């Protein structure tokens, strides 16, 4: 697209500047340094700011502007991070979740394994489905691990699935959701039913996804792998309705 003096050939100014990761980190650091008694007022001001500010459009005298969707200067994700930062993290229980998925055939019988550690408590969880995929079981492990937490927690979730870790940590899943579960103009996002659940659970906790190399001697990761494999070999497995539904099956393979 051609550009002259900050104007596009549609006669509208360039989109409003969005916060970069560095700017976001610096801003969150300032929030962290703000005394607790002032944070609630600061967050209130941020919400009012987001609701009231929209980009200014510069109109070319020769071109009639086309309607544009309103954009706020502060993203929903940034506000959520500010809210999380404003809370006293020391009051949240710290949880470590190790998760893994397995599938025989891919698609085929699948299972997930979870090791949950909080303080001195360690718990193993697993489950299986009749017909599913490996990626869906990786996601299901994360979903079930977060679902069992009774209250808001500070969670470090370890997974050997870059599909899961990158989609959350790099914001891909949020972008797919915003775009109506489309990766781009031509491709649908895969497994939207599970991404919907996982994003909702992540919003209820402070969650950091960390990738670990599979089959590399990590004790808890190896344990999750064994649990997942054993689960998919059990009898009377559940149905993965989100995958087996013919309408869903076309968009669930990845």
From TrEMBL:
It is found in: Cytoplasm. It catalyses: Endonucleolytic cleavage to 5'-phosphomonoester. Residues 91-233 form the RNase H type-1 domain. Its cofactor is Mg(2+). Its EC number is 3.1.26.4. InterPro entries: RNase_H (IPR050092), RNaseH-like_sf (IPR012337), RNaseH_domain (IPR002156), RNaseH_sf (IPR036397), RNaseHI (IPR022892). GO terms for biological process: DNA replication, removal of RNA primer. Signal peptide: none annotated. Binds 1 Mg(2+) ion per subunit. May bind a second metal ion at a regulatory site, or after substrate binding. One of its GO terms (cellular component) is cytoplasm. Pfam families: RNase_H. Keywords: Cytoplasm, Endonuclease, Hydrolase, Magnesium, Metal-binding, Nuclease. Residues 1-20 are annotated as: Disordered. One of its GO terms (molecular function) is magnesium ion binding. Endonuclease that specifically degrades the RNA of RNA-DNA hybrids. Belongs to the RNase H family. This is Ribonuclease H. It comes from Lyngbya aestuarii BL J. The gene is rnhA.
């Amino acid at each position: 697209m051609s550009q002259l003096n900050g104007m596009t050939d549609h006669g509208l100014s360039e989109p409003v500047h969005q916060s970069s990761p560095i700017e976001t980190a610096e801003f969150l650091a300032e929030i962290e340094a703000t005394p607790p008694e002032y944070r609630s007022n600061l967050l209130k001001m941020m919400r009012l700011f987001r609701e009231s500010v929209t980009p200014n459009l510069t109109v070319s005298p020769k071109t009639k502007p086309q309607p544009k969707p309103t954009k706020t200067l502060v993203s929903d994700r940034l506000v959520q991070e500010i809210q999380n930062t404003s809370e006293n993290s020391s009051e949240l229980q710290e949880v470590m979740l190790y998760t893994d998925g397995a599938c025989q055939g891919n698609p085929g019988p699948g299972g997930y394994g979870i090791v949950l550690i909080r303080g001195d408590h360690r718990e193993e969880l697993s489950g299986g489905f009749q017909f599913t995929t490996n990626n869906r079981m990786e996601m299901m492990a994360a979903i079930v691990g977060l679902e069992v937490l009774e209250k808001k927690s500070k969670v470090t979730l370890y997974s050997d699935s870059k599909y899961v870790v990158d989609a959350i940590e790099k914001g891909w899943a949020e972008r797919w959701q915003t775009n109506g579960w489309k990766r781009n103009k031509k491709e649908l996002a895969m497994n939207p039913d599970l991404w919907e659940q996982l994003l909702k659970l992540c919003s209820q906790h402070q969650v950091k996804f960390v990738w670990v190399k599979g089959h590399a001697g990590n004790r808890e990761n190896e344990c999750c792998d064994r649990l997942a494999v054993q689960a998919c070999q059990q009898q009377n497995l559940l149905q993965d309705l989100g995958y087996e539904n013919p309408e869903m099956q076309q968009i669930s393979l990845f």
